[in-house]
Amino acid sequence: MAGPLEGCRVLELAHIMAGPIAGMMLADMGADVIKIEKKTGDDTRRMVPPKVNDESAAFMMMNRNKRGIVLDLKSAAGRQAFLRLIKTADVLIENFRRGTMEKLGLGYDLLKCINPALIYLEVSGFGRTGPYADRAGFDLIAQGMSGLMSITGDGVTDAPMKVGAPVTDITAGILGAMGVSAAYANRLKTGLGQKVDTSLFEAGITHTYWQSAIAFATGESPGALGTAHPLNAPYQAFETADGWINVGAANQQNWERLLSVLELPELGEDIRFGSNDARMANLPALVKILNGIFVRKMTAEWLERFEKEGLPAGPILNIQEMHKDPQAVARNMIVDQQHPTAGLTQTLGTPVKFSQTPTMIKYAAPTLGQHSTEVFLEAGFSNEEIGLLLNE
Fold this sequence. Notes:
This protein is of the alpha/beta class. It has two domains: about 10-205 and about 330-390, Rossmann fold, CATH 3.40.50.10540; about 245-315, formyl-coa transferase, domain 3, CATH 3.30.1540. The protein has helices at about 20-30, 55-60, 75-85, 100-105, 110-115, 140-145, 165-190, 200-205, 210-220, 250-260, 265-270, 275-280, 285-295, 300-310, 320-325, 325-330, 370-380, 385-390, and strands spanning about 10, 30-35, 50, 55, 65-70, 90-95, 120-125, 195-200, 235-240, 245-250, 315, 335-340, 345-350. Helix 1 (about 20-30) packs across helix 7 (about 165-190) and helix 10 (about 250-260) crosses helix 14 (about 300-310). The two termini are about 40 Å apart. The relative contact order is 0.14.
């Protein structure tokens, strides 16, 4: 069975992370994504180590399920070839700085004249409008300016801390894929394409829903709380006899389940902890009590007790432990793939499952220019034209 976006052709001019993630998401859902690289390739090819048989592990992760071609958009022949490809494309993805495509003579105003049905995704640091539209943007910068770094950390020191994963890059890519999918659905109804514009800055802001709600309501900015929740307690990590455990007693029912597991009914009668409001107001005292209890038993024993009681809880896994977790394996989130030069490698699976149009990992990331001849032939280029393009 084909993926839900089977038949949708995407040209990806994006590099590094946010744009390529958008392309990867669309490719996983069945779109034919053609990654167009410069002669030296996407910069992610040089984000090494690690390498697998001389192939960048980072590039392979971001660009699976895509076909790859090389095209010099600064040359007249390269631009003309691109314009021929755009005629039959449904989507274009780019994450250059504002004005780059216009300088190449390939801006949206020109492309929409050639292909009025084109959906044009722009992913940038701050968006294409506003006072920061011309600024370069990176995940670190976006995390700081979106407020994320002010709410991340142990809550003890004042030093700002970024989220370990490049969440604004990744989220911007997901938002871009969501926007393209919505625009594609609209095009199926109207026949018209449009521009889709999202940014790392806005992606970061979307992660502050709870904290922004608090700030809007109180007029004060909440700070970092370590693993704790800004609105519910107890909902955080606790140290056990042999490691750590996350406990989600985030409502009154789960609080009562926790008391049952801990065999501490007296805490339920303590006025300081009788309601979520009270627990939040007295969180340091509550955490001190719970810390003294959780260190008495091993993580596995606590997890077994919590599961019997139906209380949300889980271990804190490192990346390799997560890769081996039976739920991650059962959900096909760890996938083997055969790369033409790296050989048998692994990648992460697709996080959205469809009952009728399943997603799948069909092939590994392309080597540089791997599908150039194939794609150009499909587009009607002669062997002579292809030879000239490949030898530029």
